[in-house]
Amino acid sequence: MSPDVFLWLLARVAGLTAFAALSMALLSGLALRTGVLDWVGSNRVLRSVHEYTTVLWMPLGALHVLALLLDGTARIRVIDLVVPFLVPYGTLAIGLGTIAAEVFVVVAVTGYLKRRIHGQAWQWVHRLSYVAFGLLFLHGLLGGSDFGDPAVSALTWATAGLLALLTAARVIWGRLPA
Questions:
Q1: Can you give the pTM of this predicted structure?
Q2: Dihedral of the alpha carbons of 122, 127, 132, 138, in degrees to the nearest 10
Q3: Does the residue 176 lie in any domain?
Q4: 17-60 confidence digits (pLDDT tens)
């Protein structure tokens, strides 16, 4: 196996597992406030899952990006990690991934600073994770070669559907107290 093939496979695996971790983080975060999934476990369990997966996606996402940077066939440059839509191929898909990653980093950093930020400001920044997830979903759909796989496609669409369902439950029934 050539180094570029290894790096391409590593980027795919890291990207998919980062997506899975982010999906679990969003689902458990929503479940904490909707009460729809109370039967799954206590708030303590859901909070632990939320906090763990929120931290878990970061090294996986970094590994995804690092593998693509090192892969000679991917042609991703460091500037592409900061400025979206500069890559000569897959411009839209990769640009959406760049924006999604940047927004998720902002949400994660403000999560650590929660006690130092005004409550409503923190909530609005935290809600950007919905937008970032949508962008990440489009990034995978438009640029991810694994979305053609029925198992991967089923899991990602099911996650998006469950997030939509939990979001609707929260809008309809309101936010449970912390």
A1: 0.87
A2: 180
A3: no
A4: 999 999 999 988 888 777 666 666 667 888 888 889 989 999 99
